Amino acid sequence: MSDTSPAPSRTAVVAAAIDLFASQGYDHTSVEQIAQAAGVSRSTFFRQFGGKEDVVFADHEVLLDESRAYLAQPHDDPWAAVCDASMRVFRHFAADPELARRRYAIVRQVPGLRDREIVTVFRYERLFDEYLRESLLGLDPLDAVGFAALVTSVHNHVLRRLLRGGRVPAAVLRRALDDAMRRYGVHPDGDASADDDLVVATFPRRMPAAEVTRRLRAALPR
Amino acid sequence: MSDTSPAPSRTAVVAAAIDLFASQGYDHTSVEQIAQAAGVSRSTFFRQFGGKEDVVFADHEVLLDESRAYLAQPHDDPWAAVCDASMRVFRHFAADPELARRRYAIVRQVPGLRDREIVTVFRYERLFDEYLRESLLGLDPLDAVGFAALVTSVHNHVLRRLLRGGRVPAAVLRRALDDAMRRYGVHPDGDASADDDLVVATFPRRMPAAEVTRRLRAALPR
DSSP string spanning A39-98? Predict the structure, then answer.
Protein backbone atom coordinates (compact mmCIF):
# COMPACT_ATOMS: atom_id res chain seq x y z
CA MET A 1 0.00 0.00 0.00
CA SER A 2 2.98 2.34 0.37
CA ASP A 3 2.85 3.06 -3.36
CA THR A 4 -0.43 4.92 -2.98
CA SER A 5 1.13 7.52 -0.64
CA PRO A 6 4.58 8.21 -2.03
CA ALA A 7 4.99 11.69 -0.54
CA PRO A 8 5.58 10.87 3.17
CA SER A 9 7.76 7.99 2.09
CA ARG A 10 9.93 10.34 0.03
CA THR A 11 10.32 12.65 3.01
CA ALA A 12 11.42 9.75 5.20
CA VAL A 13 13.99 8.63 2.63
CA VAL A 14 15.35 12.17 2.36
CA ALA A 15 15.70 12.46 6.14
CA ALA A 16 17.42 9.06 6.36
CA ALA A 17 19.80 9.96 3.51
CA ILE A 18 20.72 13.35 5.01
CA ASP A 19 21.44 11.65 8.35
CA LEU A 20 23.74 9.12 6.66
CA PHE A 21 25.51 11.77 4.55
CA ALA A 22 26.06 13.85 7.69
CA SER A 23 27.40 11.00 9.79
CA GLN A 24 29.59 9.09 7.30
CA GLY A 25 30.08 11.53 4.41
CA TYR A 26 28.29 11.93 1.09
CA ASP A 27 30.84 10.04 -1.00
CA HIS A 28 30.96 7.12 1.42
CA THR A 29 27.20 6.58 1.49
CA SER A 30 25.70 4.18 -1.02
CA VAL A 31 22.14 4.02 -2.33
CA GLU A 32 21.90 0.57 -0.70
CA GLN A 33 22.65 2.04 2.71
CA ILE A 34 20.07 4.81 2.24
CA ALA A 35 17.40 2.36 1.09
CA GLN A 36 18.11 0.09 4.04
CA ALA A 37 18.05 2.94 6.58
CA ALA A 38 14.78 4.26 5.16
CA GLY A 39 13.21 0.82 4.89
CA VAL A 40 12.57 0.94 1.16
CA SER A 41 13.82 -1.28 -1.64
CA ARG A 42 16.60 -0.21 -3.99
CA SER A 43 14.13 -0.12 -6.87
CA THR A 44 11.70 2.07 -4.89
CA PHE A 45 14.59 4.45 -4.22
CA PHE A 46 15.45 4.71 -7.90
CA ARG A 47 11.78 5.18 -8.79
CA GLN A 48 11.45 8.00 -6.25
CA PHE A 49 14.76 9.68 -7.04
CA GLY A 50 16.91 9.63 -10.15
CA GLY A 51 20.02 8.99 -8.07
CA LYS A 52 21.88 9.77 -4.85
CA GLU A 53 22.31 13.44 -5.75
CA ASP A 54 18.59 13.92 -6.32
CA VAL A 55 17.80 13.08 -2.70
CA VAL A 56 19.66 16.23 -1.64
CA PHE A 57 17.54 18.35 -4.00
CA ALA A 58 14.20 16.64 -3.43
CA ASP A 59 12.96 19.49 -1.21
CA HIS A 60 13.80 22.09 -3.85
CA GLU A 61 11.91 20.13 -6.51
CA VAL A 62 8.83 20.08 -4.28
CA LEU A 63 9.25 23.77 -3.41
CA LEU A 64 9.70 24.77 -7.04
CA ASP A 65 6.50 22.92 -7.92
CA GLU A 66 4.70 24.53 -4.97
CA SER A 67 5.99 27.99 -5.93
CA ARG A 68 4.80 27.48 -9.51
CA ALA A 69 1.38 26.34 -8.26
CA TYR A 70 1.17 29.28 -5.85
CA LEU A 71 1.99 31.81 -8.57
CA ALA A 72 -0.55 30.16 -10.89
CA GLN A 73 -3.31 31.18 -8.44
CA PRO A 74 -4.92 34.59 -9.00
CA HIS A 75 -3.00 37.45 -7.34
CA ASP A 76 -3.86 41.13 -7.22
CA ASP A 77 -0.24 42.17 -7.20
CA PRO A 78 2.32 40.09 -9.14
CA TRP A 79 5.30 41.77 -7.40
CA ALA A 80 3.91 40.98 -3.95
CA ALA A 81 3.07 37.44 -5.12
CA VAL A 82 6.72 36.83 -6.05
CA CYS A 83 7.78 38.09 -2.63
CA ASP A 84 5.18 35.87 -0.94
CA ALA A 85 6.40 32.84 -2.92
CA SER A 86 9.90 33.60 -1.67
CA MET A 87 8.61 33.86 1.92
CA ARG A 88 6.95 30.46 1.59
CA VAL A 89 10.21 28.81 0.54
CA PHE A 90 12.02 30.45 3.45
CA ARG A 91 9.36 29.31 5.91
CA HIS A 92 9.69 25.73 4.68
CA PHE A 93 13.38 25.60 5.61
CA ALA A 94 12.88 27.66 8.78
CA ALA A 95 10.29 25.12 9.99
CA ASP A 96 13.01 22.50 10.45
CA PRO A 97 16.29 24.45 10.59
CA GLU A 98 18.30 21.49 11.90
CA LEU A 99 17.48 19.31 8.88
CA ALA A 100 18.09 22.28 6.56
CA ARG A 101 21.49 22.89 8.23
CA ARG A 102 22.58 19.26 7.88
CA ARG A 103 21.57 19.37 4.23
CA TYR A 104 23.45 22.66 3.72
CA ALA A 105 26.62 21.27 5.34
CA ILE A 106 26.59 18.36 2.89
CA VAL A 107 26.01 20.61 -0.13
CA ARG A 108 28.92 22.85 0.90
CA GLN A 109 31.33 19.92 1.16
CA VAL A 110 30.72 18.42 -2.30
CA PRO A 111 31.61 20.67 -5.30
CA GLY A 112 29.14 18.89 -7.60
CA LEU A 113 26.31 19.51 -5.13
CA ARG A 114 27.40 23.12 -4.64
CA ASP A 115 27.14 23.73 -8.39
CA ARG A 116 23.78 22.03 -8.57
CA GLU A 117 22.56 24.23 -5.71
CA ILE A 118 23.46 27.33 -7.75
CA VAL A 119 21.65 25.93 -10.79
CA THR A 120 18.63 25.09 -8.63
CA VAL A 121 18.51 28.57 -7.12
CA PHE A 122 18.57 29.98 -10.64
CA ARG A 123 15.39 28.03 -11.40
CA TYR A 124 13.50 30.08 -8.77
CA GLU A 125 14.88 33.24 -10.35
CA ARG A 126 13.71 32.15 -13.81
CA LEU A 127 10.30 31.13 -12.44
CA PHE A 128 9.81 34.59 -10.87
CA ASP A 129 11.08 36.30 -14.03
CA GLU A 130 8.73 34.39 -16.33
CA TYR A 131 5.78 34.86 -13.97
CA LEU A 132 6.26 38.64 -13.90
CA ARG A 133 6.48 38.84 -17.70
CA GLU A 134 3.34 36.74 -18.11
CA SER A 135 1.41 38.71 -15.48
CA LEU A 136 2.40 42.15 -16.69
CA LEU A 137 2.11 42.32 -20.44
CA GLY A 138 4.37 44.98 -21.85
CA LEU A 139 6.67 44.90 -18.82
CA ASP A 140 10.26 45.67 -19.80
CA PRO A 141 12.00 42.27 -19.50
CA LEU A 142 14.89 44.04 -17.76
CA ASP A 143 12.55 44.93 -14.89
CA ALA A 144 11.32 41.34 -14.60
CA VAL A 145 14.84 39.94 -14.76
CA GLY A 146 16.21 42.45 -12.26
CA PHE A 147 13.40 42.13 -9.72
CA ALA A 148 13.54 38.31 -9.89
CA ALA A 149 17.30 38.38 -9.34
CA LEU A 150 16.99 40.85 -6.47
CA VAL A 151 14.31 38.81 -4.67
CA THR A 152 16.19 35.55 -5.16
CA SER A 153 19.50 36.98 -3.99
CA VAL A 154 18.17 38.54 -0.78
CA HIS A 155 16.20 35.37 -0.08
CA ASN A 156 19.35 33.28 -0.38
CA HIS A 157 21.36 35.61 1.75
CA VAL A 158 18.83 35.56 4.58
CA LEU A 159 18.36 31.79 4.25
CA ARG A 160 22.14 31.27 4.36
CA ARG A 161 22.29 33.21 7.62
CA LEU A 162 19.76 30.78 9.04
CA LEU A 163 21.66 27.77 7.66
CA ARG A 164 24.90 28.98 9.20
CA GLY A 165 23.29 28.73 12.61
CA GLY A 166 21.86 32.18 13.25
CA ARG A 167 18.41 32.85 14.65
CA VAL A 168 16.76 34.59 11.72
CA PRO A 169 13.09 35.55 12.09
CA ALA A 170 11.03 35.57 8.88
CA ALA A 171 10.54 39.32 9.42
CA VAL A 172 14.17 39.87 8.34
CA LEU A 173 13.38 38.49 4.90
CA ARG A 174 10.04 40.33 4.80
CA ARG A 175 11.84 43.63 5.38
CA ALA A 176 14.42 42.84 2.67
CA LEU A 177 11.63 41.98 0.22
CA ASP A 178 9.78 45.20 1.12
CA ASP A 179 13.00 47.03 0.30
CA ALA A 180 13.21 45.24 -3.06
CA MET A 181 9.65 46.36 -3.90
CA ARG A 182 10.47 49.94 -2.89
CA ARG A 183 13.53 49.92 -5.14
CA TYR A 184 11.18 49.13 -8.02
CA GLY A 185 8.57 51.61 -6.80
CA VAL A 186 6.02 48.79 -6.48
CA HIS A 187 5.59 48.55 -2.71
CA PRO A 188 1.88 48.26 -1.79
CA ASP A 189 2.26 51.32 0.51
CA GLY A 190 2.42 53.40 -2.64
CA ASP A 191 -0.78 51.97 -4.06
CA ALA A 192 -3.45 54.12 -5.60
CA SER A 193 -6.72 53.96 -3.72
CA ALA A 194 -10.09 53.30 -5.34
CA ASP A 195 -12.26 54.88 -2.63
CA ASP A 196 -13.79 57.61 -4.77
CA ASP A 197 -14.98 58.13 -8.30
CA LEU A 198 -12.11 60.44 -8.99
CA VAL A 199 -8.75 58.73 -8.67
CA VAL A 200 -5.69 60.85 -8.28
CA ALA A 201 -2.63 58.61 -8.44
CA THR A 202 1.02 59.36 -8.09
CA PHE A 203 3.67 56.84 -8.99
CA PRO A 204 7.40 56.86 -8.40
CA ARG A 205 9.27 57.77 -11.57
CA ARG A 206 11.17 54.48 -11.31
CA MET A 207 8.01 52.33 -11.41
CA PRO A 208 7.89 50.33 -14.68
CA ALA A 209 5.36 51.80 -17.13
CA ALA A 210 3.57 48.46 -17.43
CA GLU A 211 3.02 48.42 -13.68
CA VAL A 212 1.63 51.99 -13.72
CA THR A 213 -0.84 50.87 -16.41
CA ARG A 214 -1.84 47.81 -14.40
CA ARG A 215 -2.44 49.83 -11.23
CA LEU A 216 -4.44 52.50 -13.03
CA ARG A 217 -6.59 49.84 -14.67
CA ALA A 218 -7.17 48.14 -11.30
CA ALA A 219 -7.98 51.43 -9.55
CA LEU A 220 -10.30 52.99 -12.13
CA PRO A 221 -14.05 52.28 -11.92
CA ARG A 222 -15.22 50.06 -14.79
CA MET B 1 59.20 29.27 -27.96
CA SER B 2 55.42 29.01 -28.04
CA ASP B 3 55.43 28.23 -24.32
CA THR B 4 56.53 31.79 -23.55
CA SER B 5 53.36 33.26 -25.08
CA PRO B 6 50.56 30.87 -24.20
CA ALA B 7 47.75 33.45 -24.38
CA PRO B 8 47.37 33.87 -28.19
CA SER B 9 47.77 30.13 -28.59
CA ARG B 10 44.91 29.52 -26.15
CA THR B 11 42.68 31.91 -28.12
CA ALA B 12 43.44 30.03 -31.34
CA VAL B 13 42.61 26.70 -29.73
CA VAL B 14 39.33 28.10 -28.39
CA ALA B 15 38.34 29.44 -31.83
CA ALA B 16 39.22 26.12 -33.51
CA ALA B 17 37.26 24.16 -30.89
CA ILE B 18 34.15 26.38 -31.17
CA ASP B 19 34.27 25.97 -34.97
CA LEU B 20 34.41 22.18 -34.65
CA PHE B 21 31.67 22.06 -31.98
CA ALA B 22 29.46 24.24 -34.20
CA SER B 23 30.00 22.22 -37.36
CA GLN B 24 29.95 18.64 -36.07
CA GLY B 25 28.40 18.91 -32.59
CA TYR B 26 29.96 19.12 -29.12
CA ASP B 27 29.56 15.45 -28.25
CA HIS B 28 31.01 14.29 -31.56
CA THR B 29 34.16 16.38 -31.28
CA SER B 30 37.22 14.82 -29.63
CA VAL B 31 40.14 16.53 -27.98
CA GLU B 32 42.34 14.95 -30.68
CA GLN B 33 40.36 16.72 -33.42
CA ILE B 34 40.56 20.07 -31.61
CA ALA B 35 44.31 19.73 -31.06
CA GLN B 36 44.85 18.81 -34.71
CA ALA B 37 42.68 21.68 -36.02
CA ALA B 38 44.47 24.16 -33.76
CA GLY B 39 47.91 22.77 -34.53
CA VAL B 40 48.83 21.91 -30.97
CA SER B 41 49.74 18.60 -29.38
CA ARG B 42 47.29 16.68 -27.22
CA SER B 43 49.49 17.27 -24.19
CA THR B 44 49.60 21.02 -24.88
CA PHE B 45 45.81 21.01 -25.04
CA PHE B 46 45.53 19.31 -21.67
CA ARG B 47 48.11 21.67 -20.18
CA GLN B 48 46.17 24.70 -21.44
CA PHE B 49 42.71 23.38 -20.57
CA GLY B 50 41.56 20.85 -18.02
CA GLY B 51 39.37 19.17 -20.62
CA LYS B 52 37.00 19.67 -23.55
CA GLU B 53 34.42 21.51 -21.44
CA ASP B 54 36.99 24.02 -20.22
CA VAL B 55 37.61 25.28 -23.76
CA VAL B 56 34.04 26.59 -23.85
CA PHE B 57 34.59 28.52 -20.60
CA ALA B 58 38.12 29.73 -21.30
CA ASP B 59 36.89 33.26 -22.12
CA HIS B 60 34.96 33.49 -18.87
CA GLU B 61 38.02 32.42 -16.87
CA VAL B 62 40.06 35.19 -18.51
CA LEU B 63 37.23 37.71 -18.04
CA LEU B 64 36.76 36.77 -14.38
CA ASP B 65 40.48 37.29 -13.81
CA GLU B 66 40.38 40.60 -15.67
CA SER B 67 37.31 41.74 -13.72
CA ARG B 68 39.04 40.86 -10.45
CA ALA B 69 42.18 42.75 -11.54
CA TYR B 70 40.07 45.74 -12.65
CA LEU B 71 38.23 45.92 -9.34
CA ALA B 72 41.53 45.62 -7.45
CA GLN B 73 42.61 48.96 -8.95
CA PRO B 74 41.71 52.10 -6.97
CA HIS B 75 38.17 53.37 -7.73
CA ASP B 76 36.43 56.47 -6.38
CA ASP B 77 33.04 54.82 -6.53
CA PRO B 78 32.71 51.07 -5.86
CA TRP B 79 29.16 50.92 -7.26
CA ALA B 80 30.23 52.52 -10.53
CA ALA B 81 33.30 50.27 -10.62
CA VAL B 82 31.08 47.17 -10.49
CA CYS B 83 28.99 48.57 -13.35
CA ASP B 84 32.14 49.37 -15.34
CA ALA B 85 33.45 45.82 -14.79
CA SER B 86 30.14 44.53 -16.15
CA MET B 87 30.44 46.84 -19.19
CA ARG B 88 33.95 45.51 -19.88
CA VAL B 89 32.70 41.91 -19.97
CA PHE B 90 29.88 42.91 -22.32
CA ARG B 91 32.27 44.75 -24.63
CA HIS B 92 34.51 41.69 -24.83
CA PHE B 93 31.68 39.56 -26.27
CA ALA B 94 30.30 42.43 -28.37
CA ALA B 95 33.71 42.82 -30.03
CA ASP B 96 33.29 39.46 -31.79
CA PRO B 97 29.55 38.71 -31.67
CA GLU B 98 29.76 35.89 -34.22
CA LEU B 99 32.22 33.87 -32.12
CA ALA B 100 30.15 34.63 -29.01
CA ARG B 101 26.98 33.46 -30.80
CA ARG B 102 28.56 30.19 -31.94
CA ARG B 103 29.74 29.61 -28.37
CA TYR B 104 26.28 30.40 -26.98
CA ALA B 105 24.58 28.01 -29.43
CA ILE B 106 26.84 25.18 -28.22
CA VAL B 107 26.23 25.97 -24.55
CA ARG B 108 22.46 25.97 -25.08
CA GLN B 109 22.50 22.53 -26.71
CA VAL B 110 24.41 20.68 -23.99
CA PRO B 111 22.71 20.52 -20.54
CA GLY B 112 26.04 20.09 -18.72
CA LEU B 113 27.41 23.22 -20.37
CA ARG B 114 24.21 25.15 -19.67
CA ASP B 115 24.51 24.35 -15.96
CA ARG B 116 28.16 25.32 -15.94
CA GLU B 117 27.25 28.63 -17.61
CA ILE B 118 24.86 29.37 -14.72
CA VAL B 119 27.55 28.50 -12.18
CA THR B 120 30.06 30.66 -14.05
CA VAL B 121 27.70 33.63 -14.17
CA PHE B 122 27.23 33.26 -10.41
CA ARG B 123 31.00 33.73 -9.99
CA TYR B 124 30.71 37.27 -11.38
CA GLU B 125 27.85 37.94 -8.97
CA ARG B 126 29.92 36.71 -6.03
CA LEU B 127 32.96 38.70 -7.18
CA PHE B 128 30.88 41.92 -7.29
CA ASP B 129 29.26 41.12 -3.94
CA GLU B 130 32.58 40.50 -2.20
CA TYR B 131 34.16 43.57 -3.78
CA LEU B 132 31.36 45.84 -2.53
CA ARG B 133 31.60 44.45 1.01
CA GLU B 134 35.38 44.91 1.05
CA SER B 135 35.18 48.42 -0.40
CA LEU B 136 32.37 49.67 1.83
CA LEU B 137 33.03 48.62 5.40
CA GLY B 138 29.81 48.45 7.35
CA LEU B 139 27.70 48.00 4.20
CA ASP B 140 24.64 45.86 4.90
CA PRO B 141 25.49 42.56 3.14
CA LEU B 142 21.93 42.51 1.78
CA ASP B 143 22.71 45.66 -0.22
CA ALA B 144 25.91 44.13 -1.62
CA VAL B 145 24.19 40.87 -2.48
CA GLY B 146 21.18 42.58 -4.06
CA PHE B 147 23.15 45.09 -6.12
CA ALA B 148 25.53 42.39 -7.38
CA ALA B 149 22.58 40.20 -8.39
CA LEU B 150 20.82 43.10 -10.09
CA VAL B 151 23.90 44.10 -12.12
CA THR B 152 24.66 40.52 -13.10
CA SER B 153 21.08 39.77 -14.13
CA VAL B 154 20.62 42.85 -16.34
CA HIS B 155 24.06 42.23 -17.85
CA ASN B 156 23.07 38.70 -18.77
CA HIS B 157 19.76 39.73 -20.18
CA VAL B 158 21.30 42.36 -22.46
CA LEU B 159 24.14 40.02 -23.45
CA ARG B 160 21.63 37.27 -24.27
CA ARG B 161 19.79 39.65 -26.60
CA LEU B 162 23.07 40.16 -28.43
CA LEU B 163 23.80 36.43 -28.51
CA ARG B 164 20.36 35.72 -29.95
CA GLY B 165 21.24 37.82 -32.97
CA GLY B 166 19.99 41.29 -32.10
CA ARG B 167 21.99 44.48 -32.65
CA VAL B 168 22.50 45.63 -29.08
CA PRO B 169 24.58 48.78 -28.56
CA ALA B 170 26.57 48.96 -25.32
CA ALA B 171 24.42 52.00 -24.39
CA VAL B 172 21.50 49.64 -23.69
CA LEU B 173 23.46 47.96 -20.91
CA ARG B 174 24.80 51.30 -19.69
CA ARG B 175 21.25 52.60 -19.26
CA ALA B 176 20.20 49.42 -17.42
CA LEU B 177 23.19 49.74 -15.09
CA ASP B 178 22.39 53.43 -14.50
CA ASP B 179 18.90 52.29 -13.52
CA ALA B 180 20.36 49.75 -11.11
CA MET B 181 22.44 52.47 -9.43
CA ARG B 182 19.37 54.73 -9.18
CA ARG B 183 17.39 51.93 -7.53
CA TYR B 184 20.08 51.86 -4.84
CA GLY B 185 20.28 55.65 -4.71
CA VAL B 186 23.97 55.51 -5.65
CA HIS B 187 23.93 56.99 -9.17
CA PRO B 188 26.79 59.49 -9.61
CA ASP B 189 24.22 62.17 -10.64
CA GLY B 190 23.24 62.34 -7.01
CA ASP B 191 26.80 62.87 -5.77
CA ALA B 192 27.67 65.44 -3.17
CA SER B 193 30.03 68.08 -4.49
CA ALA B 194 33.25 69.12 -2.77
CA ASP B 195 33.61 72.56 -4.38
CA ASP B 196 33.32 74.63 -1.24
CA ASP B 197 34.37 74.50 2.35
CA LEU B 198 30.78 74.04 3.44
CA VAL B 199 29.22 70.88 2.05
CA VAL B 200 25.46 70.51 2.04
CA ALA B 201 24.55 67.02 0.94
CA THR B 202 21.25 65.31 0.37
CA PHE B 203 20.94 61.59 -0.10
CA PRO B 204 18.04 59.43 -1.17
CA ARG B 205 16.47 57.71 1.82
CA ARG B 206 17.09 54.34 0.14
CA MET B 207 20.86 54.87 -0.11
CA PRO B 208 22.68 52.40 2.19
CA ALA B 209 23.99 54.12 5.33
CA ALA B 210 27.53 52.89 4.67
CA GLU B 211 27.44 54.57 1.26
CA VAL B 212 26.23 57.87 2.78
CA THR B 213 29.18 57.71 5.20
CA ARG B 214 31.62 56.98 2.38
CA ARG B 215 30.36 59.90 0.27
CA LEU B 216 30.42 62.32 3.20
CA ARG B 217 33.97 61.28 4.05
CA ALA B 218 35.04 61.70 0.41
CA ALA B 219 33.34 65.10 0.11
CA LEU B 220 34.48 66.69 3.37
CA PRO B 221 37.77 68.62 3.42
CA ARG B 222 40.46 66.83 5.45
Answer: T--HHHHHHH-SSHHHHHTHHHHHHHHHHHHHHHS--S-HHHHHHHHHHHHHHHHHHSHH
